């Protein structure tokens, strides 16, 4: 499958199946971002909800 880099979504999460590992970019046209906090205050409170675990990592 040919992955196409989305220059608008920089991402370093190489464990994600949607990441273009050779460059730090997402390959999706759009992503969904959310939070696991009731009152988010710092970047760490937010999540990429489009994350999909790569099948060949993170065992
Ligand atoms: S889906 Fe989210 S975590 Fe995965 S590469 Fe795209 S931006 Fe990164």
Which SSEs are present, and which pair or pack?
Elements (H helix, E strand, L loop, with lengths): L5 E5 L8 E2 L4 E2 L6 E3 L10 E3 L11
Antiparallel strand pairs: 1-3, 2-3, 4-5
What this model shows, in words?
The protein is an all-beta fold. The chain has one domain. It contains no helices and five strands. The chain is elongated. The two termini are 23 Å apart. Iron/sulfur cluster binds next to loops.
Describe the structure concisely.
With 59 residues, the protein is mostly beta strands.
The low-confidence runs, each spanning 5 or more residues with pLDDT under 50, are none
Strand content: 25-35%
Cα Rg: 12 Å
Measure the end-to-end span: 23 Å
Largest sheet descriptor = 3 strands, antiparallel
The set of bound ligands, ions and cofactors reads:
iron/sulfur cluster
Tag the structure with descriptive keywords.
binds iron/sulfur cluster; 25% strand; two-stranded antiparallel ribbon; mainly beta; 3-stranded antiparallel sheet; 59 residues
